[in-house]
Amino acid sequence: MKRIAVNGFGTIGKRLADAVDAQPDMEVSGVTKTRPNYEADLAVERGYDLYAATEAGLEGLGDMAEGSVEELLVESDLVFDCSPTGIGARNRGLYEDAGIAAVYQGGEPHDVAGFSFNAAVNFDEAVGRDAARVVSCNTTGLCRSLFPLVEAFGVGDVSVTLVRRGGDPKQTDRGPINAIVPSLGIPSHHGPDVAKVIPGLDVHSMAVKVPTTLMHLHAVSLQLESRASRSDVLDVWETAPRVMQVDGGRGIGSTAELCELGRDMLRPRYDLWELALWKDSVTVEGDRLSFFQGVHQESIVVPENIDAARALLEMADSEYSTRTTDDALGVIR
Amino acid sequence: MKRIAVNGFGTIGKRLADAVDAQPDMEVSGVTKTRPNYEADLAVERGYDLYAATEAGLEGLGDMAEGSVEELLVESDLVFDCSPTGIGARNRGLYEDAGIAAVYQGGEPHDVAGFSFNAAVNFDEAVGRDAARVVSCNTTGLCRSLFPLVEAFGVGDVSVTLVRRGGDPKQTDRGPINAIVPSLGIPSHHGPDVAKVIPGLDVHSMAVKVPTTLMHLHAVSLQLESRASRSDVLDVWETAPRVMQVDGGRGIGSTAELCELGRDMLRPRYDLWELALWKDSVTVEGDRLSFFQGVHQESIVVPENIDAARALLEMADSEYSTRTTDDALGVIR
Amino acid sequence: MKRIAVNGFGTIGKRLADAVDAQPDMEVSGVTKTRPNYEADLAVERGYDLYAATEAGLEGLGDMAEGSVEELLVESDLVFDCSPTGIGARNRGLYEDAGIAAVYQGGEPHDVAGFSFNAAVNFDEAVGRDAARVVSCNTTGLCRSLFPLVEAFGVGDVSVTLVRRGGDPKQTDRGPINAIVPSLGIPSHHGPDVAKVIPGLDVHSMAVKVPTTLMHLHAVSLQLESRASRSDVLDVWETAPRVMQVDGGRGIGSTAELCELGRDMLRPRYDLWELALWKDSVTVEGDRLSFFQGVHQESIVVPENIDAARALLEMADSEYSTRTTDDALGVIR
Amino acid sequence: MKRIAVNGFGTIGKRLADAVDAQPDMEVSGVTKTRPNYEADLAVERGYDLYAATEAGLEGLGDMAEGSVEELLVESDLVFDCSPTGIGARNRGLYEDAGIAAVYQGGEPHDVAGFSFNAAVNFDEAVGRDAARVVSCNTTGLCRSLFPLVEAFGVGDVSVTLVRRGGDPKQTDRGPINAIVPSLGIPSHHGPDVAKVIPGLDVHSMAVKVPTTLMHLHAVSLQLESRASRSDVLDVWETAPRVMQVDGGRGIGSTAELCELGRDMLRPRYDLWELALWKDSVTVEGDRLSFFQGVHQESIVVPENIDAARALLEMADSEYSTRTTDDALGVIR
């Protein structure tokens, strides 16, 4: 039973704690917060030991806290760093001092761990490492749809426009309210980040931010290197891990209905751990394949994190780990 | 075991079917749809017998449908009418022809049933009736907070501004995108509708529609007829049925964090069956009491409908019914 | 010809500079910026001398800047402080050192000037003062509709719910995207602020923030102290200064159509300097008067600022000033 | 002096009437409405003769109307059809019966006129025709940026993702409020529509709809057929007609600041007749050129319509017409 710490019990952290708790071979050693808010209350209700992420937090949390993050780390085998973007890199020394393995999130740079992880692509290379970075939600989504195509047909140039949510549902201080905000640097960082996981794959990305909270949406257009029909492509994705095909013809016409689907499936927090691919958008014209996909920014990386933990801690091989993760969570395989 | 039909398996209908399914003393006889969309698929996956709500639907649903709504009704003891606003009144003949009890939703006029229902206020009067109308989400929310005050202190004039969501999450064709839309007729229909349930209570309401999908929010200001302190009021609400006090100081600062709370509580579809009252907004100045409350438009009427069914079918008394409903769903009492 | 400085050429400042420029008896001595952005470019195109609001700004603006804010102030008779909320109070010493009159905006506290101004209410009291604070857009709007009623009929308790915009159109970093955010402290500061201008008027306000950028909307309900019919009230407002009656029956159904009206009137920046009152919402029930009004947060205080300048500098009496201001801008009287 | 009718005085129609009114060689013969709303009031205030677009409108408009649309047409030389999408095609017989030239909008199919117009591309081919269709705002925007590149360098495959506004500011009944809605058919109709104007140009388009009202935004990526540097491209666009380069570095970071720019330029209705190109987004990598552009859906087609009228009525050659149009409106050339 491996003991896993969650440093930062927020959007990603609370999902990872619940996901660890659902696994047969790991348990939550504790979670951290900086303030005594409703998420801290939730940690207590769930029975997770609560620690203070910062010195100020130790005072703010008062009796709620069992101790400091340092005290938590020494009792743990691995830590999920779920601190806000940019703080993760600053925490590295903390984890190294505690002598435990660390999994970082995609907001941190590749160099924080020297290794960017996706379960389907490079699990084996992660085995036994001290640290790994699970790539961001957008990059994870792109790896999920692209890697099976690379293996089946070969893929040339990929162009993707990322239509990004402005903030998560609970981030009410984030905008925009009524604007489309392009990332003027082209390509955006998302495309090149894919090559950190799938070396040699050339993904050219442009990104815009829009006034929505639910999901990101990708408009993808790519060159297939060998001849494939639309149904060949759909067949490949049918068996691709953590990919869910959805049907506009059944009324799944937007990111909102995708989330409604998550609600109707009675998913916890309506999480969509799978990449959602609109099958009626899949279009092959000559060697060009185009399609739309939806990425649930709050949850798509959850299963990847669990697998990364098993790889670092040498707990299982890729097949066993991903099957165990998916069964425990209820991921559509 | 009473057999309950759900006519219209949409936003309210799918929740009512699941709620019926969770009760020990009733079961879903079948549900209806007009089109073969993802909600029809859901009905099938859940194991609910699917019927066609309309003749066109019978063709559209094809093999998915067990038959027509008429065929469903004759096998049922009671029907929840969950058809779009205005259609319910047109369905009345259908239910009368089938000779079964009917529960209508608040979008229909009072006259459709001649009786407007709220479990805490007038359960006993509904016992044995042929039909009842569960008042709308906004009216239900107002009854929840106001009735206990009426009983404890007496209530004079009530002023409420309803800040309404533009559409439900899945209703992507509804606006506004960037506007505040007042209902120019004053008072709006919501206030007078409360008096259909609590006779003599004078609620003056003004309503605006805003670009959000999550919840309605009410700004309430009223006169207490007997002296009461802030803590007297909070004490009354502490034991009021289906009322949940929430705390801005713990980070529940908006309707978005309220829904995040529903997600973190792992509620199905993050439903908030309770009226949410911001306890740190509760202010007493002289005889004036002011506060904010949040209403989850998709789910707040679910427990009321279940109780209405028990009342019409004379299955239980008020106390037994509400306790059974709440235990089965997991409502905070 | 009085020389007027505008310290902060942003949302309010650029409007005030253009408004000064349009008056026959004052001119723009210069405007300030902190950064060389498109608004700085605009100042140059308009022919306004540009100064640096801060030391860092002096470097950033480079050749665009004529000098420092201190250099601007000594060449001016009065300054409009249009710096971000809270900075105005810190600038007071600067203006006192330069020995010039200062007009502050409503984001600053009453104490910054010791006097809160509205042209129709207390112009005469401002004459010859060193400083005045023009009350905020919301308070200005409330003074516009309420003061004529106070004078005509007497006004008892006033209840208002302010439905506020989340940010101005250009403030793309502000939210919320999808939430209703109540100000949990009741009453909100807006109501009591009216009493700073109209002593003794008791305005009880509750405020919520919503995902829109265009305007604020107020739901107002008040007690008339002497009997008045709906048409009596409309008559009073017909001659009230800077009040515009709009008609839902002609399709002005929301804040969006109000702004469309400003566009169709070919207003600069579609500014609505007038308070917009929905005449078909005006309802009298007994002694209670209820109505909706819209406040254009970017521009409603512009004419008040110009009048405040004339009062402080003893340039004109109230009637001459307001008529001159309104004629120069094109305000509906 | 050519007499121009505007059939449909709404979003496009009111702009075209004002644009005609500003030209030295044409005048407004009349405009039509179906209902007596604020836009009908505006027509009267502007001094445009108002006619009823429909028989029901004749009754609704009452004394406001001078007569029927048929009466207007016989007194006119040309009509701008600005009726809602799809109605234009049904009006064709009306215009043919009156024996006058007709300009349709881009919501109508190419076949309605048999000719799709853009002033810079095919003015000469339109001379003397009975009818032309000015292509939609999105297609017009694409023609503006692409045609100069075709002429200067040659252009191979073009990929564009159109991020579309959900509705115009005044269309408060349109959504989505919180969703990204992909057009599942790929390619969307926008790309192929470009080839109706620039034969042989292969534009592959994917479209999504988002919760904003201000502008469309295009993410464009294309192959240049001859070698060109970034500055070569910017030079070509510098002299391209009706193209405006904007600068993220000066704070124009989104469609909202673009509209703020239109406001600060004191444009009527803040209209942006020019295509807005983000110069700091322009990126050349090998033979691939990528960039973002913004399209003001309410106004970009206005100058094209005026030129189309001159072409059909053989009033001027291309150079004279476009210069006259642009000078009269104040378009940046």
> Low-confidence parts of chain A lasting 5 or more residues at pLDDT below 50?
none
Q: Helix content range of the residues of chain A, please?
A: 25-40%
**What are the secondary-structure elements of chain A, in order, as H or E?**
EHEHEHHEHEEHEHEEHEEHEHEEEHH
The fraction of residues in strands of chain A falls at: 15-25%
Which fold name corresponds to the CATH topology of the largest domain in chain A?
Rossmann fold
Distance between the termini of chain A: 25 Å
Number of domains of chain A: 2
**Oligomer class:** homotetramer
Using only C-alpha atoms, the radius of gyration of chain A works out to: 20 Å
Shape of chain A: globular
If helices are DSSP runs of H or I spanning 4 or more residues, what is the number of helices of chain A? Answer: 12
User: At CATH's second level, what is the architecture of the largest domain in chain A?
Assistant: 3-Layer(aba) Sandwich
Secondary structure class of chain A reads alpha/beta
Report the strand count of chain A.
15
The CATH superfamily of the largest domain in chain A is identified as: NAD(P)-binding Rossmann-like Domain
